[in-house]
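in:
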């Protein structure tokens, strides 16, 4: 098993993104993730985002640096895990779900708060699975 890094972050938008711009960003993200062999999942709810990205450490670090520098949002919190772990989102180059579309609702306290990293990943994984069924 190879070494994998997972980074999860919570961020807030600096300005609203319309559906057209959002679709363009998603297409760019899918292509970039494919090139870097990065997988992950993004939840967004109006003015906030929670994303998990995972892959070989150098690729995840490169991608996360570009995310941190993106002027459209401000990263508020970051969590990471390194080691010989399996990918949790290997089916998705860039899975995405709008909070409004999820029938289960979103536990933002769990996403934003001090809950353990593994708990956040497990929660997002369950949302991703329920969303794609």
């Amino acid at each position: 098993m190879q070494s994998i890094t997972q980074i999860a972050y919570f961020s807030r938008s600096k300005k609203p993104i319309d559906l057209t711009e959002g679709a363009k960003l998603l297409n760019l993200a899918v292509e970039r993730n494919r090139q870097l062999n990065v997988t992950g999942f993004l939840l967004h709810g109006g003015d906030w985002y929670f994303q998990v990205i995972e892959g070989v450490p150098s690729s995840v670090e490169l991608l996360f640096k570009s995310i941190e520098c993106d002027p459209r949002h401000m990263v508020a919190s970051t969590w990471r895990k390194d080691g010989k772990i399996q990918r949790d989102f290997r089916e998705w180059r860039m899975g995405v779900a709008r909070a409004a579309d999820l029938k289960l609702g979103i536990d933002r306290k769990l996403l934003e708060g001090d809950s353990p990293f593994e708990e956040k990943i497990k929660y997002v994984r369950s949302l991703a699975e329920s969303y794609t069924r």
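note: Helices lie at 19-36, 57-69, 108-112, 117-132.
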